[in-house]
Amino acid sequence: MRVLKMILLLALAVIIIMLAVANREPVVVELLPTQFQFITGWSTQVPLFVVMIVMAAGGFTLGWSWEWLREQRTRTIAARRRRQIAELEAEVQTLRKDTGREEDEVLALLK
């Protein structure tokens, strides 16, 4: 498994390096469209591969965050059920101690 992981990471690194080498030309990145430059005139030149990698990382982060928030309800239900199971197991132990029988009646009949 470790070897497969290293091979996949190496392949990903080669793809990213090829992407960077193929897209080195500078592009102008502006904060707002040209019609709204009077608000802020911020713009800069960066290589195209930087824009591509930043946008991909932002998309992955946004997607991960969205899924994490969407699954919050499921995690809450699972935590509630874990607490209920722990409470019920404690109650079963208490009842077994109160009755003086450590075994289940059905299992005692099978012996």
Shape: elongated
- Counting H and I runs of at least 4 residues, what is the number of helices? 4
Uncertain parts:
none
Distance between the termini: 46 Å
- Strand arrangement in the largest pleated sheet: 1-2
Percent of residues in beta strands: 5-15%
What letter string, H or E per element, gives the SSE order? HEEHHH
Describe this structure in words.
The protein has 111 residues and is mostly helical. The protein has a domain of 49 residues. The protein is built from four helices and two strands. A two-stranded antiparallel sheet has the order 1-2. The two termini are 46 Å apart. The model has no long low-confidence stretch (mean pLDDT 88).
What distinguishing features does this structure have?
111 residues; mainly alpha; two-stranded antiparallel sheet; 4 helices; 2 strands; 9% strand; coiled coil
Question: Can you lay out the helices and strands and say which pair or pack?
Answer:
Blueprint: H1 2-22, E1 26-30, E2 43-47, H2 48-70, H3 72-99, H4 105-110
Antiparallel strand pairs: 1-2
Keywords: Cell membrane, Coiled coil, Membrane, Transmembrane, Transmembrane helix
Pfam family, one: LapA_dom
Protein name: DUF1049 domain-containing protein
Quick recap of the structure?
The protein is 70% helix and 9% strand.
